[in-house]
UniProtKB/TrEMBL annotation:
Gene Ontology annotations of biological process type: methylation
Cellular location(s): Plastid, Chloroplast
Name recorded for this polypeptide: SET domain-containing protein
Classification via InterPro entries: Rubisco_LSMT_MeTrfase_plant (IPR011192), Rubisco_LSMT_subst-bd (IPR015353), Rubisco_LSMT_subst-bd_sf (IPR036464), SET_dom (IPR001214), SET_dom_sf (IPR046341), SET_RBCMT (IPR044431), SETD3_SETD6_MTase (IPR050600)
Main location: plastid
Organism: Urochloa decumbens
GO molecular function: methyltransferase activity
CDD domains: SET_RBCMT
Composition bias, Basic residues: 7-35
Length: 488
């Protein structure tokens, strides 16, 4: 009937992909052998791109017409970032990057990869750009993007790069199942691409490309592509992609635009603006995405925020195929824009999503309430279910949700209180901080859901149900529940 599933692959994969500061590798973790990738930095300030590589990159930017006068790339606590070269007012353009520097579908089409696979159009856009990235890395100094590739991080703190030991810290979380799901998806894409493209074009990929290399490319795209540049528009924009995220920037508007395409033949230009005033020498930040939960931030970028509105839990509800009223329930759900399975993202300190109780009531209909599923009510049933149907039905939804919360909470290895104690310790590795933040956040939301339904259980006797509302509508019961006789 109703299940709280600790996973949400569906949501994740449907979602856009895009990483941290002082991303220090955990001291316990020996670096994996990596055959293809260059000795670029492993996302940590300590391993930030060498001064020489950064200088090279800056020279490359100027020689290629990227406007670098107002902001320059520099080592910052988040790895690399953009620093203001002078005082910049809000709205000022801080970086302009001509299209010829982008790694996008057009660059794929114009490359060896494009030639080898019919323009690259048959590939998923992210797979095509990932292959271009790997091919250009394989070309070493011959690649036109070599100075850019040399400053890319080897890893971020995204959970896709965590060791098994590190992943143990998020046991029981939705983030773990999502991470595993994403890695499986990337692995399966790798296997097809390896068979169909890499092995068939050994001249383009003379060295070995491993699934770790492919995962690296996926992680780079996921952490660096501007969220709106999805699908066919997916593009790595060197220089602009050095901008880091700040939780203090809360403006919704986009901090970038694409200018100039087709205007008097002028080449398209990616233009990044600062959304706040920045003083000379300070770092320029943007808001990556106000809608992402901490689990999504951890998966995409490898950092989280302390803000409670980022703590969320996705409840998955399902109409069971073994339900005797399966067909009717499914029909009603579909008529109202939902399906056999429905996902509800619950955010800490926020009310339950509006349709969740309605859907839950539908799932829990049985016994004498089943009359409401009859065809006669098909157009009005959803409206009826927006309010309590019967004491039995309302009690069932509370039980279902409380049982599900209990079993989800039992799957975590620590309690919220234990997490809070651990998080007070000094010098916690960044990945452990992420793990604690996400698992504590999920548990708080589950606790909140349980509290909501516990309170509801206590109020069952005082609620007004369908039959009572119906009698009132017919004028047979007064507002205080008294029976109205014809003779009075
Ligand atoms: C678009 S890139 C920005 C450039 C990146 N700092 C670098 O060194 O290449 C996104 C990555 O930067 C890091 N990052 C950005 N904002 C951060 C923040 N507020 N805290 C920690 N890391 C951040 C994360 O590693 C993230 O995956």
């Amino acid at each position: 009937m109703a299940t709280l599933q600790p996973q949400h692959h569906h949501l994740l994969l449907r979602h856009r992909p895009p990483p941290p500061r002082l991303r220090l590798r955990l001291p316990t973790r020996p670096p994996r052998p990596h055959r293809l990738l260059p000795p670029a930095r492993a996302v940590s300030a300590a391993a930030a791109a060498s001064t020489a590589a950064l200088e090279d990159f800056r020279r490359w930017l100027s020689s290629q017409g990227a406007v670098e006068g107002k902001a320059f790339p520099a080592a910052v606590p988040e790895g690399l970032g953009l620093v203001a070269a002078r005082d910049l007012p809000r709205g000022e353009v801080v970086a302009e990057v001509p299209k010829k520097l982008w790694m996008d579908a057009d660059a794929v089409a114009a490359s060896d990869i494009g030639r080898a696979c019919g323009g690259g159009g048959g590939l998923r856009p992210w797979v095509a750009v990932a292959l271009l990235l790997l091919r250009e890395v394989a070309r070493g100094a011959d690649s036109p993007w070599a100075p850019y590739l040399a400053i890319l991080p080897r890893q971020t703190d995204s959970t896709i790069f965590w060791s098994e030991e590190e992943l143990l810290e998020i046991q029981g979380t939705q983030l773990l199942s999502t991470t595993v799901g994403v890695k499986e998806y990337v692995q399966s894409e790798f296997e097809s691409v390896e068979a169909e493209i890499i092995n068939a074009n050994k001249d383009l990929f003379p060295g070995t490309i491993t699934s770790d290399d492919f995962l690296w490319a996926f992680g780079i795209l996921r952490s660096r592509v501007f969220p709106e540049l999805r699908g066919d528009k997916l593009a790595l924009i060197p220089f602009a992609d050095l901008v880091n995220h700040s939780p203090t920037i809360t403006s919704e508007g986009s901090s970038w635009e694409i200018k100039g395409k087709g205007l008097f033949g002028r080449e398209a230009m990616f233009s990044l603006r600062t959304s706040v005033d920045v003083k000379s020498g300070e770092q320029i930040y943007i808001q990556y995405d106000l809608d992402k939960s901490n689990a999504e931030l951890a998966l995409d970028y490898g950092f989280i925020e302390s803000n409670s509105s980022r703590d969320s839990y996705t409840v998955t509800l399902e109409i069971s195929e073994s339900d005797p009223f399966y067909g009717d329930k499914l029909d009603i759900a579909e008529l109202n824009g939902l399906g056999e399975t429905a996902y509800f993202d619950i955010v800490l300190d926020e009310p339950l999503p509006s349709q969740m109780l309605t859907y839950l009531r539908l799932l829990c209909i049985g016994g004498t309430d089943a009359f409401i599923l009859e065809a006669l009510f098909r157009n009005s049933v959803w409206g009826h279910l927006e309010l309590p149907l019967s004491p039995d039905n309302e009690e069932s939804i509370c039980q279902v949700m409380r049982d599900a919360c209990k079993s989800a909470l039992d799957a975590y290895q620590t309690t919220i209180q234990e997490d809070e104690e651990i998080s007070q310790r000094e010098n916690l590795p960044p990945r452990l901080k992420i793990a604690i933040g996400v698992r504590a956040g999920e548990k708080k939301v589950l606790q909140q859901i349980d509290d909501i339904f516990k309170q509801r259980e206590e109020e069952l006797d005082g609620l007004e149900y369908y039959q009572e509302r119906r009698l009132k509508d017919l004028g047979l019961v007064g507002d205080n529940g008294e029976i109205i006789f014809w003779e009075t």
